Fold this protein.
Amino acid sequence: MDLLNHPHIFKERQNDSFEVINPSTQEALAYIKNTHQQELQNLIQKAKIAQKQWATMLPEDRCDRIYKFYSLILENRDFLAEIMTKEQGKPLEQAKSEITYAASFVKWFATEARRVDGDILSPKAKTQKLLTLKQPIGVCAAITPWNFPSSMITRKIAPALASGCAIIVKSASQTPLSAYALEILAKEAGILENCFIVVNGDSTEISDVLCQSNDIKKLSFTGSTEVGRLLYQKCAPTIKKLSLELGGNAPFIVFDDANLEEAVNGIMDSKFRNSGQTCVCANRIYVQSGIYDKICEALIEKIQTLKIGDGLESGVNQGPLIDEKALLKVEEHISDALNRGAKLVIGGKRHHLGGNFFQPTLLKDVTQQMKVAKEETFGPLAPLFRFESEEEALFFANDTEFGLAAYFFTQDYKRQWRVAESLEYGMIGINTGLISNEVAPFGGIKQSGLGREGSKYGIEEYLELKYLCLNL
Ligand code: SIN
């Protein structure tokens, strides 16, 4: 695939374009055309026409084309992963896993396309037939993040296409190449032209058009709670259906009766995947006092084995952070914690490689008063909090406006149910630090968002339920 054949991607700087930068090397990878208001309005109209045709195709036909899209993603896995590592920074092996993860949503929803079924309801009179139909909502929009440049797109476009919708994606401006590569493959797979369109440019200009348009019937957004609130407001005048996958502040609780080795591996998986730039990653690690020191020692050992560097180098498992703003946030959380009495165990500084690299960091004696207890760090900082009782752990864990993911380790099966039921979160990992897959519903409660992605529930977000009352 030659990305430079795409009309929005240039090798050299052009008028009205923006630069895509490799966060490891700071070199310019490509330049992307800005899409403006009028052009976007035209694209919405094209998507509207295409959607009508796509929706009238047999579900089986849509299924075959979406399945072909899945096969093409896997065939191009190495190429897609390399683009991702270059524009996002994650190590190549993690990028390859993300492509497999991205493809899994396409495969899942290809087959769901054939299972969009209505019901026949019990009538209220002998002459009646009562039915429900599920119909595609129409033209949808998605605004996607840079931390998972492919999978956060496929988790939205696959259910949209499966249900018979068209979808316009505004990808993150840090990672547009992964988005355009998917658009090219979708076209090659036979997804009708203008049913999946990628646009880029000024976020406010694009989101204003998408949110204000009466022809866009639904918006799906993954990103911060702050931006999610703004989009919610902007969509209010047109009463758009919304899916919001927003910020997290995941607690990770380790009880005294946990399997220590498994708990430490769980913390490493959850905290350091994608260098901590994951909305479901452990943000607050609560350890019961009986095993606090042992967990701290075991983490030091594991953290020392992490290899930091350019994601294309072999053996590297920690890439750079996305930009300077991300580094400043990690530094702010560390200095705030140290000023309030936390202790630095390992790391704590920018890495000697320079640029956007940061040392994986462990802090201990962290408390609820510190910033890291309240806000998502989105970086490689593991803060250890101490607790005494289950009641105290639950109080601390739920003491946040967020409710995306939570984790805990215990071998007591009664406690497993009790704690899982008491945690105020949309997703709970019990004795594991990895919970994401295409089969399970992904999403949060409280200020972590609305709706669910993936799973058998994800397609409902792109469907309208119509009720028919037939009098014979
Ligand atoms: C995210 O960080 O937004 C998604 C991570 C995942 O799907 O596991």
The first strand starts at residue 9 and ends at 10. Residues 147-148, 152, 222, 278-280, 436 surround succinic acid (CB under 6 Å).
